[in-house]
């Protein structure tokens, strides 16, 4: 009797097939979650180039129109830690869908209206979606195997830069003759695709912590953030020594103190302050504050710089579109180098990788101070800043994941994202004050010296972040190999 060929798969073949299926599935998860992160990042920069033209189009004052940005930032700062805690309690995927859903609803509201009040409401709803990035990072860190985790977190983190890099030139194109409502239709469509993709393709992890919502803690934290961020956003207009600015800062101290007392005594706190004071997490969050400062200053310190008239002695008189395009290489570098950042994290550790990123950012800012002769030199300097920021942003969630239990990961990433946002607020406040103070004689135009002071502050901030990162220790647990 002739022996029949053995058609059964060998163990090796089965392992290869399982690996292929797992790789394809992981790529799909990363793709749809990454799209959600991209549209959130995109929405945060889209309005910046068109903002000067909106008061006339909307028949409103510049101060009122500014709330289209401020409302998004304020709501986002409040939503991020709260949504992170809810993600740990009720499911990271569920809260990610809520965040992307808020982007969709807010985009539709703003796309369909020209009333300034309705637009501000829509933008405030969009602010809830800021939680999508830390929730997405936490979701993938929980779902993916260790060997894929670093690449996924690096890619999602890179979307912060990619969104800004794509958003500025696109919005610049709209600013030169298009309808600003187009911006919101783009985010609405992208949010709808991301929402459906996550709902249909991404599973919900089973590591839910359960528990009860700390409403008192949420109210105290929200109040503290509003009283802190509002004067940071409006201080240059109100005056840093004005009574309402001082009163709000005093209220910030009181509310944060009350929040700390409540959280330390509550059985199920909104934010586990004991976890935040663990050395690796504490140092990571401090470094994140300085890295967040350096990235946002790149946005405000490049577009306005190249648009300054040539008579300023440093500017190039570019259009809004060209100014946006100068940021494109920086954002794309963050995305392209995310696999490199992942290899560094797996090879030398997240702390050392964050330090490398910080030092590269400092080099970029030094280039911005010393090499200013042509537009391409400005692009090179900002791209180096983007490369360093991309590496640093990839390492930060890896450090958080390495030192946080999975059932607390969304909350920890939410707090870290909030702290990075505070860095951006500080960059806006400090940078705006420097540029408004150090001006060309007889004009309100920032001088080259003003920009150089801002860039020097950014370089110092990046070096501080790098030194702090070196103080973090690489955990010995298996979860550290992300």
Detailed description of the structure:
The chain is mainly α and 482 residues long. It has 2 domains: 25-213 and 270-480, Up-down Bundle (Growth Hormone, Chain: A), CATH 1.20.1250.20; 214-269. The protein has 20 helices and no strands. It has helices at residues 11-45, 54-58, 62-65, 67-90, 92-111, 116-127, 132-143, 146-175, 181-201, 215-238, 243-265, 273-276, 279-307, 320-325, 328-336, 338-348, 350-370, 375-402, 409-437, 448-471.
Topology, pairings included?
Elements (H helix, E strand, L loop, with lengths): L10 H35 L8 H5 L3 H4 L1 H24 L1 H20 L4 H12 L4 H12 L2 H30 L5 H21 L13 H24 L4 H23 L7 H4 L2 H29 L12 H6 L2 H9 L1 H11 L1 H21 L4 H28 L6 H29 L10 H24 L11
What's the CATH H-level homologous superfamily of the largest domain? MFS general substrate transporter like domains
CATH architectural category of the largest domain: Up-down Bundle
- The number of distinct β-strands equals 0
Q: How many domains is the backbone divided into?
A: 2
> Which shape, going by the Cα principal axes?
globular
Strand content: under 5%
For the sheet with most strands, the description reads: none
| Mean pLDDT across all amino acids | 86
Calculate Rg over CA atoms: 23 Å
* Helix content class: over 70%
What series of H and E elements makes up the topology?
A: HHHHHHHHHHHHHHHHHHHH
* Estimated structural class: mainly alpha
Looking at the chains present, what oligomeric state does this protein adopt? Answer: single chain
- Helix run count: 20
């Amino acid at each position: 009797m002739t022996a029949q060929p053995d058609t059964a798969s060998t163990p090796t073949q089965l392992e290869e097939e399982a690996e292929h299926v797992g790789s394809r599935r992981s790529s799909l998860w990363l793709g749809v979650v990454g799209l959600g992160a991209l549209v959130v990042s995109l929405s945060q920069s889209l309005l910046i180039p068109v903002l000067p033209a909106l008061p006339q189009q909307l028949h409103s004052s510049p101060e009122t129109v500014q709330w289209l940005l401020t409302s998004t930032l304020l709501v986002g700062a409040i939503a991020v830690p709260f949504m992170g805690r809810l993600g740990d309690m009720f499911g990271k995927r569920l809260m990610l869908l809520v965040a992307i859903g808020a982007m969709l609803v807010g985009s539709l509201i703003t796309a369909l209206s020209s009333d300034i009040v309705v637009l501000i409401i829509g933008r405030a709803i969009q602010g809830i979606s800021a939680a999508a990035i830390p929730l997405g990072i936490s979701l993938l860190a929980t779902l993916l195997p260790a060997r894929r985790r670093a690449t996924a977190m690096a890619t999602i983190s890179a979307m912060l830069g990619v969104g800004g890099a794509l958003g500025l030139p696109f919005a610049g194109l709209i600013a030169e003759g298009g309808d600003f409502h187009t911006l919101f239709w783009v985010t609405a469509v992208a949010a709808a695709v991301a929402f459906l993709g996550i709902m249909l393709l991404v599973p919900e992890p089973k590591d839910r912590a359960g528990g009860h919502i700390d409403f008192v803690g949420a109210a105290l934290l929200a109040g503290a953030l509003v009283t802190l961020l509002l004067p940071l956003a409006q201080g240059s207009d109100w005056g840093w020594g004005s009574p309402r600015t001082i009163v709000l800062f005093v209220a910030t101290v009181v509310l944060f103190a009350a929040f700390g007392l409540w959280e330390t005594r509550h059985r199920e706190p909104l934010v586990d302050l004991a976890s935040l004071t663990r050395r690796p997490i504490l140092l990571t969050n401090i470094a994140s504050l300085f890295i967040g400062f350096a990235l946002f200053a790149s946005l405000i310190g490049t577009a306005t710089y190249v648009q300054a008239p040539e008579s300023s002695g440093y500017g190039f008189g570019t259009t809004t579109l060209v100014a946006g395009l100068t940021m494109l290489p920086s954002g794309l570098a963050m995305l392209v180098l995310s696999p490199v950042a992942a290899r560094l994290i797996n090879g030398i550790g997240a702390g050392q990788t964050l330090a490398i990123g910080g030092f590269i950012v400092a080099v970029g800012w030094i280039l911005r101070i010393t090499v200013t002769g042509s537009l391409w030199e400005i692009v090179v300097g900002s791209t180096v800043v983007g490369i360093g920021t991309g590496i640093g942003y990839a390492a930060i969630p890896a450090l958080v994941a390495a030192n946080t239990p999975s059932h607390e990961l969304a909350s920890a990433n939410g707090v870290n994202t909030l702290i990075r946002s505070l860095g951006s607020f500080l960059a806006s406040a400090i940078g705006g004050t420097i540029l408004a103070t150090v001006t060309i004689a007889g004009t309100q135009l920032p001088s080259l010296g003003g920009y150089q002071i801002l860039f020097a502050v950014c370089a110092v901030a990046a070096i501080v972040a790098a030194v702090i990162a070196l103080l973090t220790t690489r955990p010995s647990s298996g979860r550290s190999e992300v």
